[in-house]
Amino acid sequence: MARFTKDAWQANLPLFETTRDMPFNRELAEGALPTEKFRHYMIQDAHYLEGFARSLALVSAKGWSADHVVQFTKAAEVAIIVERELHADYFERFGVSPQDFASTELSPACNHYVSYLQATCAQAPFEVGLAALLPCFWIYREVGRAIHATATPDNPYSVWIETYAGDDFSEAVDAVIATLDEVAAKCSARSIENMHRAYRRSSQLEWMFWDSAYRQEGWLV
């Protein structure tokens, strides 16, 4: 039987390629992304990562083994602590105070993505929650690698690029992929179908998140 993650990646490859090549990521690689767009992105990403960590914590409680609980509880900790340091660096550069961050609402796309992940991880079975969480890991790594390969020297966003193209993050992604394939091998055909649907939806929301940052999206009403 083909691995679930291989099938999911191939089924959504055109969507990934569209995400990789969208203006936000292309201009980030060129070092030409306007500061205000990246600033908007970083604030929303910090909000998103708190929701993502809560989703990881929810799914960890449903783990099929103690190893699953440990893996995803640690992943939640990393999302909060390690990546918060990345945001703190850019917040200082861009003059974003704790009050500025706290008073900035989640954008519609960020709110949609966080709400979808938390609802799925709370209400759906373990395997479906994992499938919904995987695109954030996997797409970020592959986009980070693509940007790293073409990034201009002295890129102002080099810290972000190095984080997502780095070995530590790559190892974490590989671990999630391995766990999901291990779990999927024991799932029914109906569960696999639901997992594919969850993976697809989160992949779409990844595109929406970057697009909303590029447009500096806010609430229209």
Automatic annotation (TrEMBL):
A Pfam family: TENA_THI-4
The keyword Hydrolase belongs to this UniProt entry's keyword annotation: yes
* Domain Thiaminase-2/PQQC stretches: 23-215
What reaction does this enzyme carry out catalytically?
A: 4-amino-5-aminomethyl-2-methylpyrimidine + H2O = 4-amino-5-hydroxymethyl-2-methylpyrimidine + NH4(+); thiamine + H2O = 5-(2-hydroxyethyl)-4-methylthiazole + 4-amino-5-hydroxymethyl-2-methylpyrimidine + H(+)
What is the superkingdom listed in this entry's lineage?
A: Bacteria
User: In which pathway does this enzyme or protein participate?
Assistant: Cofactor biosynthesis; thiamine diphosphate biosynthesis
Record SUPFAM superfamilies: Heme oxygenase-like
UniProt keyword annotations, A-Z: Hydrolase, Thiamine biosynthesis
EC top class named in words = hydrolase
EC number in record: 3.5.99.2
NCBIfam families linked to this entry: salvage_TenA (TIGR04306)
* Function according to Swiss-Prot or TrEMBL: Catalyzes an amino-pyrimidine hydrolysis reaction at the C5' of the pyrimidine moiety of thiamine compounds, a reaction that is part of a thiamine salvage pathway.
UniProt record similarity statement: Belongs to the TenA family.
Q: What is this protein called?
A: Aminopyrimidine aminohydrolase
Q: Which organism is it from?
A: Erythrobacter rubeus
Gene behind the chain:
tenA
